[in-house]
Amino acid sequence: MVQSMFPKSSTKRALSSPTVMRNAKKPHLATAAMAGVRDVLGEGRWKSWPAPAQDLKAARVFMKQCRRKDSSAGLRLPTIIVPDKDADGLSSGLILYRTLSALGLPPESIHVHFIAKGASVFSTSERARLECLAIAVSGGDLEGTPSEVRVIYVDQGSRGGPPLLQPLLDEGRIIVRTMVIDHHQSEDFPEGSQVLTACKSPPICTSSLLAYLMCYPLESSIPEACAWLALLGIFGDLGPSEIKFGDSEGDWPVSEEMLRLGDTIRVVKKKALSDAVSLLNAPRRTPEFDVQSAWDALLSADGPTTITNNRELRRLRFRINEEVERCSRAAPRFSKDGCVALLRVDSQYQVHPVVAIRWASRLKGKDLKMIMVVNPSHHPDPNLVSFSCRIPASLRKVAETAQPNLQQLLKGYAAKVDAGFLTRVGGDYARGHKQATGGIIPSAEFELLVTKGMEIMAKSVRRVDGGPVDGQRKIKDFFSKG
Ligand SMILES: [Mn+2]
């Protein structure tokens, strides 16, 4: 069964991998000449882009140190990559994986770890899982010299707090060094982690682009081999139309690296990239949450078309599309101030973000700022609801500074509930991006947010699956939460 998840790439293909860009011409010099300018990242206007220069430099040192030969034992450091589950996270993870390999770290020293459904790298259960893994891969030489394990968190979101992993495990014999590579908004970061974030360097790039630009100078094969991976994350997080490469009038730099990406799009084609993104995003949306199958498909792919031909992923996407269709039939209800349209869905699939995006393109209104979709059935803990928020698609066209800040909006409604709300809901509230956020919070708190914060009036009957509604009980359940 596992076997069938791998695309059957022909021997020919496999031999010439990474093939996608090998035969591509390199017209970027001509494109740059046409543009008439040539930005240099890390200089002038782009001094702190895609991230602060000293952080980029430190991240490159961290990468190179992973294959550092220990003078006594000739050791290479076991390195664990912890990528997020979506196209941006997976492609960022693979860029790091390819770079570490190219730098000389053998495959048995590179480990890839995925977060369990509903958990995050900040949750206690995940810290425990990662600590066990770190001990397991450290070599287990309990009597010997301290061994070191490195962990790279990619695209996982950022927040303050205690160290992601205790730097000393197992009575001090294992040293863990952690690096966070991210682009989600945050003022605070975990104690003790080295951080590379794009969140303070507008225009904020994706984790995949950040990883690509960080790894670009580290090894000569990376610029070509990883360009399509950088694009997967960009298409995944920003969509196909957000970045125009090589446009000197546009928001993004016109640099060698960016022009190369523009050329790569012309070779691999936008449609194949978009299609590959939606297929890679499929496994993590199913109730089984089989992120590993998306990673396996990506790891063995030599370009987006290998992924678009993957039957297993196509089958999963079909199931999700059906679920999105079903859940998109929910009807919105509006907050008293007209700023929020709330939709309620009930699904074990992670379709709430997709339904939000879909309704975001349908709804507009003078005051409308936020489409919010709540799904009480997604999180394994039945007391928690997951919700996703997006700005109306019509507002995507206005200047970024004029777009609503949904994280702020959510915090405003939280303040209307009561002073203790933010503490009670914990760290998984209003994380992510200004225009795309959400949360996982106790359902009772969510209902307080709905009634006291946003002042959305309760509906007479809760929507259940289109089937006949068990009137009395459902109505009572619904009101009792307010
Ligand atoms: Mn991302």
UniProtKB/TrEMBL annotation:
Pfam families: DHH
Source domain of life: Eukaryota
Bias kind Polar residues: ranges: 1-20
GO molecular function per UniProt: exonuclease activity
Region (Disordered): 1-22
InterPro entries in alphabetical order: DDH_dom, DHH_sf, SSDNA_exonuclease_RecJ
Signal peptide coordinates: none
DDH domain segment(s): 80-234
Protein's recorded name: DHH phosphoesterase
Protein source organism: Pleurotus eryngii
Lineage: Eukaryota, Fungi, Dikarya, Basidiomycota, Agaricomycotina
